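Lab notebook: predicted structure, single chain.

Context: the supervisor wants predicted structures on file for every construct in the current expression panel, including those that have not yet been purified. This is the next one on the list. No modifications to the sequence; it matches the entry in the shared construct table.
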Amino acid sequence: MTDFPLHTTETAPEAARPILAASKAAWGFLPNLHAKLAEAPIALQAYGTLFDLFGTSSFTPGEQQVVYMTANVFHECEYCTSGHTVLAQMAKLDAATIEALREGRPLPDARLQALHVFTRSVIEQRGHVGDGAVEAFLAAGFTRAQVLEILVAIAAKTISNYANHLAGTPLDAFMAKTVWVAPSHRQAA
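Prediction complete. Output recorded below exactly as produced.
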């Protein structure tokens, strides 16, 4: 694997330095994902912008985490699944829902299951889900705006999940108790 540095505000390209400083201030530490993305300031900025925008969506914090976790697990991103497990706990998702998301099992809540199924379908089918899938999502109590808001989260997670695969991002210390191993890596272990 190509070695991508874990940048700091001192080693990052000039355009990434203020973004990293803001990230460190917001999180209380510099997440390794951000340190890796800093190699390409435009990628760091795009990810941060999309992540922040999805935080202002009409989804609740718990629903946002369902969308994020669905993408993370689908893409087999060990870094993001481990990290978003903590964020899902902070968003007050129950342990059974978090475990179901991590292990690809049906969610215990019907509305969250509909969100999970629709999000996964959008990713798997690259948006070609058909009217039936959209109507089922709407019937579960979601809106047409939310159909499109999901795309913001998928775009953010595509950037972070793929960057972690390409750059070999190590887990942050706060993820120690939520380590997740992708199914394709479980067989190898």
